[in-house]
Design the sequence.
């Protein structure tokens, strides 16, 4: 496999993303920078002061005494300065660590929070075309890794400044020994740079492979009921192992092996640099070119130089991972949010429910075939409209246009004679309620699931809605009543119970337009009868759209629209359509009742 350096656009995108995420905390970052400079200066002088202190002790051991200000021994003065500098440096480092941890947490939480907010504001079309588990994984990784970048830079930057100060002071002691230190560091860094290119590509590939594997693994957990019903646990366990221990693991193992090799050769460089310094120091000390204290200082600077650089490989890996993760997350942040409030938006408090389709055509993309072609409708408030036809002929798409999830490619959809493109989408959707075929409830109480979308509803309002949905008796028999938690996606409730919770939610919403998407298709006869009664009460006085495959459920509709290949092939009442010889609706109806 050929490895190449990450593309400059990806790096630029990642850096821009990191800058945007940390911008709200620039005040804290400037304070950290200022503290870091003071800490670096203090730490940079510590080996120098230590060396001078040892020289003063050696003088003292020889009976030679030096004084500061006539009465303070030099060694006492140097020890006091050393202690003061260490205390200053340690206290600043402590303050920096606390502040850095605070900023780390805030940056991480900010990325996660803004990511979820952005996802909620993205159009439905985005969510229908992505693996949401992989998307959430990208946001999670970006949060942790961008905060790790900050932690690494805040820790390493003062050390690097200390190194620059140390190089200057080491050179003032002995240029040759300082040059050996610098040469060792240069070789160390060159080795690191040489290995970064292949590692960068491996890391990017591993991220993509991990996200794909995470999607596959998470899917089995989301579909746990189906897994249990099929007794497919062992199959899914094997799938998860293959997904999470496959390509990503091999790539990461390869990357870690490369880092291990780098670490080995870097330690060899450090060893020979220090060995050369020790050998030359023996000669220089014996010649009197440098003092023992200066040798101590030089070795202190050697530790200062190589200490940060020993972890430089890991630090660069953290930075590289963070840039990659930030760039991947930025792909999500760059998706335009849904335009909830267009210019000169219309936001009526009430609508009557009049719906008009004017020569509407629609496709899901410029390179996609049309899903709807030249649809014309004129629906009066309170009418019941049924949409029938085989799967994939445009029924659900027609309904999606009502709520502004999509807008026509050609033509216009009007509600109360106002184009949906000009509506405040929040105001529009608050006047529309949907009872879907597959109800997905939140892992919350029954009370909050009914109230969802109508946050100001009182407990009395909720009880009334539950009564009208014929679910109040069931709720009141539960030990916790309305405070019963329904489980993930409502797994603790039956299909019929979830449908009635959904109906209660719609009743509470008091919509002008009601959408019923096969709400009784998965119910037994008794439950269907109960749900149908609740729906009939809900439909009164509201413009209602019913998507149906079972034609027995739409016989009472005011108008039945028969879709075929993205067009309305027939329209009329049940009696009108059944009377058509060889009509599409009649053929579908006779097929369902067993006449074909």
Sequence:
């Amino acid at each position: 496999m050929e490895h190449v350096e990450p593309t400059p656009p990806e790096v630029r995108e990642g850096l821009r993303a990191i800058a945007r995420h940390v911008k709200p905390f620039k005040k804290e970052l400037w304070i950290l920078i200022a503290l870091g400079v003071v800490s670096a200066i203090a730490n940079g002088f510590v080996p120098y002061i230590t060396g001078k202190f040892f020289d003063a002790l050696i003088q003292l051991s020889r009976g030679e005494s030096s004084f500061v200000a006539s009465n303070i021994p030099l060694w006492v003065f140097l020890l006091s300065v050393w202690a003061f500098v260490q205390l200053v440096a340690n206290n600043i480092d402590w303050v920096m660590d606390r502040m850095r941890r605070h900023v780390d947490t805030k940056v991480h939480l900010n990325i996660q929070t803004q990511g979820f907010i952005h996802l909620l504001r993205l159009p439905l079309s985005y969510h229908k075309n992505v693996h949401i588990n992989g998307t959430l994984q990208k946001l999670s990784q970006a949060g942790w890794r961008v905060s790790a970048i900050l932690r690494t830079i805040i820790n390493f930057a003062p050390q690097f400044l200390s190194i620059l100060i140390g190089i200057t002071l080491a050179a003032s002691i002995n240029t040759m020994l300082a040059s050996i230190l610098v040469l060792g560091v240069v070789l160390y860094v060159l080795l690191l740079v040489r290995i970064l290119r292949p590692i960068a590509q491996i890391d990017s590939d591993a991220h993509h492979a991990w996200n794909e594997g995470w999607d596959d693994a998470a899917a089995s957990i989301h579909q746990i009921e189906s897994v249990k019903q099929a007794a497919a646990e062992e199959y899914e366990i094997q799938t998860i192992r293959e997904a999470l221990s496959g390509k990503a693991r091999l790539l990461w193992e390869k990357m870690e092996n490369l880092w291990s090799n780098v670490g080995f050769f870097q330690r060899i460089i450090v060893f020979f640099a220090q060995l050369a310094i020790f050998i030359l120091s023996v000669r220089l000390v014996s010649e009197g070119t440098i003092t023992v204290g200066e040798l101590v200082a030089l070795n202190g600077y050697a530790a200062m130089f190589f200490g940060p650089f020993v972890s430089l490989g890991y630090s660069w890996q953290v930075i590289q991972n963070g840039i990659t993760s930030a760039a991947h997350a930025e792909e999500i942040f760059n998706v335009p949010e849904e335009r909830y409030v267009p210019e000169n938006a219309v936001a009526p408090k009430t609508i009557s429910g009049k719906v008009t389709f004017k020569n509407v055509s629609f496709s899901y993309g410029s390179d996609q075939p049309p899903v709807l072609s030249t649809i014309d409708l004129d629906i009066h408030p309170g009418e019941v409209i049924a949409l029938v036809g085989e799967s994939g002929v445009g029924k659900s798409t027609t309904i999606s246009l009502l709520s502004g999830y999509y807008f026509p490619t050609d033509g216009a959809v009007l509600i109360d004679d106002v184009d949906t493109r000009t509506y405040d989408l929040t105001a529009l959707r608050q006047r529309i309620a949907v009872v879907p075929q597959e109800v997905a409830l939140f892992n919350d109480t029954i009370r909050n699931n009914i109230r969802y979308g109508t946050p100001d509803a009182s407990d009395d309002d909720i009880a009334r809605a539950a009564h009208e949905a014929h679910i109040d008796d069931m709720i009141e028999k539960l030990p916790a009543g309305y405070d019963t938690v329904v489980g993930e996606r409502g797994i603790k409730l039956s299909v019929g119970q979830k449908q009635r919770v959904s109906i209660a939610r719609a009743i509470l919403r008091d919509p002008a337009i009601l959408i019923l998407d096969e709400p009784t298709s998965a119910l037994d006869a008794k439950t269907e009868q109960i749900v149908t009664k609740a729906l009939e009460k809900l439909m009164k006085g509201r413009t209602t759209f019913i998507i149906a495959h079972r034609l027995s459920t739409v016989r009472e509709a005011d108008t039945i629209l028969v879709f075929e290949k993205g067009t309305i092939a027939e329209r009329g009442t049940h009696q009108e359509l059944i009377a058509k010889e060889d009509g599409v609706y009649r053929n579908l109806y006779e097929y369902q009742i067993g006449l074909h």
Residues 74-121 form the longest helix (48 residues). DSSP finds 20 helices and twelve strands in the chain. Residues 1-6 have pLDDT under 50 and may be disordered. Residues 14 and 526 are 57 Å apart (CA to CA).
